[in-house]
Amino acid sequence: MKIALFGDIHANLEALETVLADARSQGCDSYVCLGDVVGYNANPSECLEIVREMGCPVVKGNHDEDAGGDHSLEMMNPVAAEALQWTRDQLNAEQREYLARMRMVRQVQDFTIVHSTLDQPNVWNYVTNKFDAMSNFSYQFTQVCFHGHTHVPRVFVRGTKVQDVPPESITIEEGMKYFINAGSVGQPRDGDWRASYCIYDVPSKTIYFRRLDYDIATTQKKIIAAGLPEALANRLAVGR
Ligand code: ZN
User: Which CATH fold topology does 2-238 show?
Assistant: First the structure.
């Protein structure tokens, strides 16, 4: 069994289609979505329908919550508020209801999935260092947990102490715990514009990361054509 773990799609249809095609060519037979299907980019409805049709386990991201909810946008910065209202307007009531009902944490087989962190999944904290990871590990009751939210592929390992190891191929070892960020499909922020996701090869207990070129020019054109802030198109090219 090979499981593709992908999240932070952020309505980027070109990146999502590229990732799913790659996962198939890598022999993946299961899929798990780590949340933030919508927000920022121009195809929220299309990306949401793809994920729903896949019928795979999915957890709620903060953008899914914002788009599915109907709280006031007055307190947000105007650019973010405008983009969020645009996303809400692209989704029908039934799609927004689906987003609102997504679960925050799920166990899939022998691992856990969450969008941000297990210690306070609904607070949307960012795990950017070992201390943040330690808080998560206190609430992680499976050996492996996959997450997203920072848009940076990353691996924290807890043995006798917590280590921050590079997002390369890793093998799950007895007595250790792993908190693994799959990176972002649709808006990477580690300085590399290519779509990111990871694959868990269950029989060999290995996890490896994939980075993929996609048709970013089309994604950027759609953002501009939709009247979304131009900054959203520009940041894709620099991976920030
Ligand atoms: Zn996100």
Answer: Purple Acid Phosphatase; chain A, domain 2 (3.60.21)
Q: How far is the CA of 174 from the centre of ligand 1 (A)?
A: 31
Q: What is the DSSP letter of 27?
A: T
In this structure, is the dihedral angle defined by the CA atoms of residues 165, 124, 148 and 224, taken in order, positive or negative?
negative
Using pLDDT thresholds of 50, 70 and 90, give the confidence band for residue 70.
Answer: confident
Q: What is the pLDDT of residues 126-143, one digit of tens each?
A: 999 999 999 999 999 999
**Alpha carbon distance 132, 185 (integer Å):** 23
Quote the tokens at residue 185. Answer: 């499909």
**149 C-alpha vs ligand 1 centroid, how far in Å?**
5
Name, in order, each residue with C-beta under 8 angstroms of 183's C-beta and a sequence gap of 6 or more.
8, 148, 151, 152, 153, 154, 167, 190, 196, 197, 198, 209
Domain ranges of the chain: 2-238
